[in-house]
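Q: Structure for this?
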Amino acid sequence: MVERSRKTFGQRIGRLIEQIIHLINRAVTLTLDAARRAVSFIVDLVISGVDVVFSFIQRIVGVGGMPYIFVLPNLLIFGIFILFPMLLNFVYAFTGGTEFYPGQRPWVGTENFNTLLTCGNFLDPNTCREDLFWRAVYNTAGYVVAQVSLMVVISLVTAIVLNRKIKARGFFRSVFFYPVLLSPIVVALIWKWILQENGLLNGIITSLGYEKLPFLVNATWARIWVVLISVWASMGFYTLILLAGLQSIPAELYEAAEIDGANPWQSFRNITLPLLMPTMLVVLVLSLIRAVQIFDVVFAFTGGGPGSATLYLVQYIYSNGFSSPTKQYGLAAAASLLMAGVLIILTVAQLLLRPEEV
Amino acid sequence: MSQVWEFLTRRRGGKRWHVTDVITYLYLFLGIVVMFGPVVWLVLSSFKSSAEIVKFPPRLLPWRQETVTIEGYEEPLPLYQVELEGGETATLAQVRRIGLEAQLIDPENPDEIIRAPIDDRQPVESVSFALDNYVESMQRFDFPVYLRNSVVVTLFATLLTLLVNSMAAFALSKYRFWGRTAIFLTMISTLMVPLSVVLVPVFLVITRVGWNNNLLGVIVPGAATPTGMFLLRQYMLTIPDDLLDSARIDGASEWRIYAQVILPLAKPALAVLTIFSVMWRWNDFLWPLIVLNRSELFTLQVGLNSFQGELNVQWHYILAMTVLTLLPISVIFALLQRYITTGIATTGMK
């Protein structure tokens, strides 16, 4: 008898807890529901409010005029802040002086371009009139080639690894993606801290019995690390795109190849690579455009130094237009036009050079 | 030996670990170290005292020397393990150091001064995650203000980006009108010419509009992003036009069709654009750097960069503020990582 009443007592407590949990659940659900209703009420109110205005407009311009109304806000922002400045850039590039307002700038024709493009020997920046520009050009070219090729290889390898039958794929995918979310300034500071003279990496190197290495002081090391850091920071994004491309390749193709006696390398070479080409092209175009514009990580990491070893094009434009005491807007604009030209040529070339079989 | 290996690599279901599996997992764990390691190192270092942070070779954990407060001394005194002449060791507090000799006292018996060569003492240390660096650097780094500016910029820029681009995408994907192709092609052709090559003229426009040193100057110019418009348009093309027609027959205005038929259906694409926009805006640096000159308007990124310029050797402060800057986006990522990665991988780039 005692035994039984105890049991019911335990059961009672159990039920009480259950009821409390149930009540909390209901309270949470009700609150969330109320919040959702409040939000959707406000959204409805806003939509109806705007609808009054838009219906009025629709009565005036008719259904056929509505697309212009819908496209208008975008077109205004786009026109004022992207298209108009692009045209204005030509005005800056063909005028000289240090005045900021285009109306006060004297027309100089192609002088800015001549300044940038006058070189005794184009392979040696020291013989150029604007040697910093050519240093920036060569630094950028070297950086783009090294960064894009390294990043495509590493992203591809990572995507292939992530595409295998592995445990916790979602987790590992996030691991490689995480640095993409970090801001360039944070990335630069994290690595500056590791690579400084008395930093973690030199600590590891000396504990292995070697001498400290001048990672941030030596020009070659600084260039190498700029490449490595930017690969570290952005490879996750391209890995995701390549992974999506890999997952869209039907598994039956590999099974058929296996039945036909193909080894893994052959199926990679003859199935994976050709079918991945369209995705690779997207990755190449995107990463090239991004690489040519390298700026913020380096700006916070080395500031362009040591000397001008990591001075890249956008920083050249930025310092001519905004941070140097004599503001050379004309040179900056001319340089950015040249850079835009290179970007367009690169993109078009890649789209044209696309392999025929794809 | 081969039997041992076979035993170790035996797996459930009879399948053995193939050598490629081993390489795969090695690669993945190397990935964890390389991707997370630098951030973990940053976080650990941010708790180190100014004395510990300049030590070489550096130690992994934030060790701090223990101190003791003794009556008669204003500052807390550092504790040392001292080897006494008799060969025994004692824990003593150091009062001062003169050349190679340290003057120490026993905390139990503070009146008697014990002298010892500095080589005979070892600091008493313990791992402590003290917040001193964070508290002290907050006095110079206006984190709340920068955070507010960053949140304002990210939030409003994303809302504006979504609204403006979805409206344009709706018009360009669901209507036939004169000039449609021209508008579309003009926008698409600027896809590969980024904002950074038109810095000077955009700055002129901003100055003329009067948005210099105004958060609006950071928010508005990037809102009409051709990438976002293109992404939304491609998605909206897949929504059948019949839906629009039946809504029109029901008497819905064009605005209601946009807001209550198309937008709910375009949610996946809107989600991806939201992720992109938040990433772009939160991490944006060059543009705010040019538009904002007054420190009370700085976003976190600009603030952090100028902070590191001001204090280029005081790493313990810089590291603490770097951690604070990466914290918000890391928390959001930890909560939403599944949606973010699948979103970008599937809808983002097709």
